Amino acid sequence: MSKGVEFFKWRAHPWHGLPAGEDTPQWVNVFVEITQFDSMKYEIDKETGYLRIDRPQRNSSLPPCAYGFIPRTYCDRRVAGLAKGAQRGDKDPLDVCVISEMPINRAEVIVSAKVIGGFRMIDDDEADDKIIAIMKGDAAWGEVEDIKALPRPLVDRLKHYFLTYKMTPKETTEVSIESMYGAKAAQKVVQASLDDYADTYASE
Q: Looking at the domain assignment, is residue 61 inside a domain?
């Protein structure tokens, strides 16, 4: 076996090597990083494409649903331009929460999901939108077309999670949710992130 070979490059990178979806921006592929059972915060390692532990959660709040990102998206100037109060994008792939009747209990899976809305979140002056989507074919939620049709307690739990998931004892966070938006606005954010990705990576 030759030395110095980076074998992870033989595996399709989840961010760059997977498709964003067949009917974007309404339908997207979501690469799941975190399940609703995880007390660790995992994030994609941008170099290798494997999951890396970002941090252990310091509070008792667990994600209300599976959480990941849309491949071949990037949050830069176009996404930031849609977010009043943001000075820049967070330069990460676009985050998505996937709602499903049956819990998704493992990470590093691809889920086809319908975009129904989102939260306009600002994190330390950066646009950090959270898209809300429904798993394709879901028996309970599959007919939902807009976030307004979701039960308010579920929406409140999602909001609470993102407002508190970075909290640590004796420290303050710069996270705020400026607004909630419906399906059409969410699709504009998805398209902006696809365009930001094309601007940044298409020529590479």
A: yes
